[in-house]
Amino acid sequence: MTKKRDTNIFTKISVELTKTKVPPLFSTGLSTTYVLKVSNSVTNYHFAIGKTYSDFLLLRNQLLRDMDDSHVCDNVGCRTFVDDSNVHFPPKVIMHRNADVIRNRELKFQDFLDYLVHYINGSRESSCSVARENVPNALIVFLFDGAKMNKRKFWIPAPRHHARRIPQEILDQAFRLAKENKEEEHIDDEALIGRIQTILESHGGQSFVVENSEEDGSVSPGKAIEIGTPFHLEDNNDISTFLPSFKQALSRVDDPNELVEIEHQLNEMIAERKHQLLKH
User: Fold this and answer.
1) 3-state SS string over 117-133?
2) Which of 92, 115, 89 is nearest to 31 (CA)?
3) How far apart are CA 132 and CA 154, in angstroms?
4) CB 42 within 8 A of CB 155
5) CA–CA distance from 197 to each of 6, 170, 192, 204, 225 (Å)?
6) Alpha carbon 182 to its chain's center
7) Structure pTM?
8) Nearest 5°: CA angle at 136, between 41 and 157?
9) Which of 44, 49, 42, 41 is nearest to 14 (CA)?
10) Distance between CA 217 and CA 195 in Å, rounded?
């Protein structure tokens, strides 16, 4: 039986309390806002969201309700969760705009968030549904609900490098030499790709773009191809020869964000080709 993939996001998400916005002394209806910087270490992207003391209090109280006296599980962290949450949380006071109170809350709120992330990451091997689902889901809602951000930039890593255009004659030579070696040595397609990679690396390429000549003699922008992608190099360029290997390559993708990026690129390619066909 295949082990279920861990969907925990808090191995790459960090939260930092960066500043506090205090309303004017005699203002009414305004609350002190604690600005949180939420960062994704994989994409190097972040956004800011403001939270009040009441927001933090609602989060804590929700978590404590899930950890009432009837809660019993195998997770060590759950045994002290209630006490730890109260220790890491600032008390409610009347003079909440006092500078010392604000500073203490800044430290405590950061401490509380750090504790929750540590608790979540340390509970992934347990069977406790509260630790694995309720607590992380509550923190996700707290951090992301109502946040203004570019979701694509936050969750999907940018390409590691830009495609480097290699002249068509170099590509033709690389494919021809590699295929000749394949016929002589009876190597498989993945080994063939390795041969092509070796030839192209001599020209400084880690990825390349194939320039396709159109019927009118113009050159289309082409598509970036990652060297090492397993696909078949038959003389027949029918897409049906590529699909089985593409399906096999997809089965090895284990990152949902990477899969979203692949889907986005494929949709763009299909839309572009559809547009070309509809023009004629």
Assistant:
1) HHHHHCCCCCCCHHHHH
2) 92
3) 23
4) no
5) 34, 12, 9, 10, 11
6) 38
7) 0.55
8) 25
9) 41
10) 30
Task: Give residue for tokens 């939270």.
Answer: 51
Q: Please give the domain boundaries of the chain with CATH numbers for all domains.
A: 13-150 (3.30.1520.10), 164-279 (no CATH)
Residues 207, 214: Cα–Cα separation, whole Å? 22
Q: Please give the structure tokens belonging to residue 44.
A: 């190097």
| pLDDT score at 91 | 86
For the record, the structure tokens of 80 come out as 């002290």
Q: How far apart (Å, rounded) are the C-alpha atoms in residues 262 and 280?
A: 28
Residue corresponding to tokens 């089965």? 251
Q: Any residues with CB less than 8 A from the CB of 253 and at least 6 apart, and which?
A: 259, 262
Structure token digits, residue 261: 């990026």
Q: Could you tell me the pLDDT band of residue 211, with boundaries at 50, 70 and 90?
A: very low
Q: Residue 225 has what DSSP assignment?
A: E
Rounded distance between C-alpha atoms, residue 84 and residue 61, angstroms:
13
Place of tokens 């890491």: 88
For the segment 100-146, what is each residue's pLDDT rounded down to a tens digit? 889 999 999 999 999 999 999 998 888 898 988 889 999 999 999 88
